[in-house]
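Researcher: Next entry in the queue.
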Amino acid sequence: MEARSKMRYRPVPKRIFFLMNVIFLMTLVLIPLPPRAEAAYVRNHPITLVQPDGETISCFVTGDEFWRRVHDARGFTILQNQVTGLYVYATEADNQVVPSDYRVGWYDPKP
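Model: Structure for this entry, 111 residues:
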């Protein structure tokens, strides 16, 4: 049987090791990162809502993908009542915006 010759490994010189690290780090620094995605803010974008009975409401939306507000031409906020499905004007209760009983298009929200 042949005797296995022992392979001897030569250590990588410090200079080459340093250059490899520098090239690796420079590659990381110089790789362009994708730009951060920003939301497009929309102000008074016209939309049409449809009531459950088929009535259409012309209104506007203001905001971005994280926060938006649906409102009429005079700036009154419109919400959908989760119980009835109707679009109604908003009111404030306990420092929160909640749906009122005033259906959009049927009542004047300004007293």
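Model: Residues 42-103 form one domain.
Researcher: Noted, moving on.
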